[in-house]
Amino acid sequence: MKTKRLFAALAFSLALLPVAAQQNVGFRAARVQSPVVNADNTVTFRISAPKARTVMVMGDWENEPRASLKEGQDGVWEYTTPKPLPSEMYTYRFMVDNVMMLDPVNAFTRRDVGNVFSTFYVGGGNGDYYKVRDVPHGNVTQTYYHSDAVGQDRRMTVYTPACYNKNDGKKYPVLYLLHGSGGDETAWPELGLVAHVMDNLLAEGKIEPMIVVMPNGNIVKTAAPGETSENHDYKPMMSNQIEGNYKNGIYETAFPEIISFVEKNYRVKADKNSRAIAGLSMGGFHTLFTSLNYPEKFGYIGLFSAGLNLTGLDMTLPAYNDIDGKLANLKKKGYKLFWVACGNADGLFQANKDLCKRMDNQDMKYEFVETSRGHIWANWRQYLLTFSQRLFK
Amino acid sequence: MKTKRLFAALAFSLALLPVAAQQNVGFRAARVQSPVVNADNTVTFRISAPKARTVMVMGDWENEPRASLKEGQDGVWEYTTPKPLPSEMYTYRFMVDNVMMLDPVNAFTRRDVGNVFSTFYVGGGNGDYYKVRDVPHGNVTQTYYHSDAVGQDRRMTVYTPACYNKNDGKKYPVLYLLHGSGGDETAWPELGLVAHVMDNLLAEGKIEPMIVVMPNGNIVKTAAPGETSENHDYKPMMSNQIEGNYKNGIYETAFPEIISFVEKNYRVKADKNSRAIAGLSMGGFHTLFTSLNYPEKFGYIGLFSAGLNLTGLDMTLPAYNDIDGKLANLKKKGYKLFWVACGNADGLFQANKDLCKRMDNQDMKYEFVETSRGHIWANWRQYLLTFSQRLFK
């Protein structure tokens, strides 16, 4: 036991170290618990702020998403939602004396465009698909494809299902899943919880095993903010605020570069009916014009609250011209599913209805799914849950 | 131009939509700029907090890491570091009226154990290796290996260099890189900026192309907090606070499972001198005992501020017993490099020196690198920069 004594003599408490000299040690759990999802799915928020005069919580749930916390005796402010929240993944922030902040005791965060939010799950419904379950897990990879169109390597996120790792030579269909304005190749993985959704649906036998490719859709940037050679000088912003014309048609016309990269680097079924394309908001715009310009590429097309507001669009560009002629051509070439979903509180609702009218005029088949609520991630996650179950069957 | 008119009629401003109905649109750039790295590498912090009584910034730099901001006329508080900060990736938070918070206008954040921090880079030195440069980029993959030892799929992060994607049959050496207590498979990628470091060193021809495998080292958990089936119920905490004995020897003795998975799923040179293992803090502890128990596996061994405080360790376990005998065996089996680095302000400095004394007693070859400062990521990133350049040459 000489060894044991020697090491015991060297032992010391890390807690005695000066704070400035250490990281990754000595972390202490918080005194207050927040958020707490109660048994009835009401949610309680707490923050210790003894000097604050006002504390609010601002969330993305539907019923009373802004509310004041009340101060208790010990400087801990508290608020419980008056009603249970529907099952979902939620984001929220506190506003303490008018300063926006995360919940300081909640380590789970997500960035949406340029804001960072605290998050929580409410189970018992859709939220159970967004959580991790004890099922086989697929891979999530950040990789780069070379775009000759812009002369740059561009980043994408790729999900491959757990069974892909068997390396048994089996080939898989591909869903190309596009983000919205202000988003990037991390939006669907982080806010859309794509890996969790796909793992869970696949484990339940509700979807075909598929690869999901989530490319960066901001053609004037190579990757997400923080992951380009501009580093922190490229701050997250809406895509139409990025310097350079993001609606120049290059992304849509160069889309086959992405397909070629995927089909070269992954075990992929390379036929039309094994390819789907879908996108939210700006990604719905990209989806529409990519599929119109390449009617032979995709058997499945999904528009999620598509950004069909075409203000400022140069419709003389080959990528965007002759919509009706291209729709006619798409009809002729054929497709398995043209799926349009939009919330009826979304400002884009009418624009999506109008696209449907255009298709009606040409007697084209499509499905229009009207949901409640607006231009929100809760809808886009729901659309992915629904749309993915329709693919490749 | 009928099309153009039709769509123009549908156009509307997204800015007019009610806030609650939309996400991912209408993000506005902040009024204040923070942080700003000035031309002389001093850094200015700002926050709009008109009602605050005190505002502090707390960072992980060496010189005056805590300082008070001063309020200007418009409710914007400001502070500039008195001296330039050395080139590095830094983390910081604000404390407004004693409430810890992120910089609300800085979207770039990192989680370290259970705290989330705002981040920035200062260039001109090491920091330039941590930033993204316009060089070929490798892949970063989250994947799962099956551990028979614990009967679970466990998550790891794998970096493969850009040249790996040529799919030319070339095989690569592997660095197994282990995180510290409170960390997980996201710690080295996020806080160690492994992909940026490797991309940049490789582009400069300073390292051999290598695969970097970053497994989860908390044997009683399958993945990082938020990525296990406990979801948010498993909050980040120090590894010794996780229920279950994390120093039970299973991780170190089951380590060949990780190697087998990697060598089966990646194009890997599967010989001793093509394998390196290194780890920070608890990961240094894991590195020592894994290499002592498998002296035939690794040609390169790196201890980064290794957690060689063995208090509470059951040294009768086969994983941990007979250190001197195992060191002798390691010497006999041979190795290319045994590299020990520690900051001289680190509470673990003496324990690392004492390990060196043990090796001296056996006339074993090793290198001891003494650096300034303590148990901090700035040191671990520096150690990775240095150690990786010594490998596989």
Largest interface: A-B, 112 and 113 residues
Individual helix count of chain A: 10
Query: What is the number of E strands of chain A?
Result: 18
N-to-C terminal Cα separation of chain A, in Å?
66 Å
Q: Whole-number radius of gyration of chain A?
A: 24 Å
Strand adjacency order, main sheet of chain A: 11-12-14-13-15-16-17-18
The overall pLDDT average of chain A reads 92
Largest sheet of chain A: 8 strands, mixed
- Give me the secondary-structure category of chain A: alpha/beta
Uncertain ranges of chain A? 1-20
Topology order of chain A in helix (H) and strand (E) letters: HEEEEEEEEEEHEEEHHEHHEHEHEHEH
Helix content of chain A: 10-25%
Q: What is the subunit arrangement here?
A: homodimer
- Sum up the overall morphology of chain A in one term: globular
**What fraction strand of chain A?**
15-25%
Task: Give an overview in words.
- With about 400 residues, chain A is of the alpha/beta class.
- Chain A has helices at about 1-10, 125-130, 185-190, 195-205, 250-255, 255-265, 280-295, 325-335, 350-360, 375-390, and strands spanning about 35, 45-50, 55-60, 65-70, 70, 75-80, 90-95, 100, 110, 115-120, 140-145, 150-160, 175-180, 210-215, 275-280, 300-305, 335-345, 365-370.
- In chain A, the strands form three sheets. An eight-stranded mixed sheet of chain A has the order 11-12-14-13-15-16-17-18, sandwiched between helices.
- The longest helix of chain A is centred in the last third of the chain and has 13 residues, at about 350-360.
- The radius of gyration of chain A is 24 Å and the shape is globular.
- The model of chain A is unreliable at about 1-20 (pLDDT under 50).
- At the A-B interface, helix 1, strand 8, strand 9, strand 10 and strand 11 of A face helix 1, strand 8, strand 9, strand 10 and strand 11 of B.
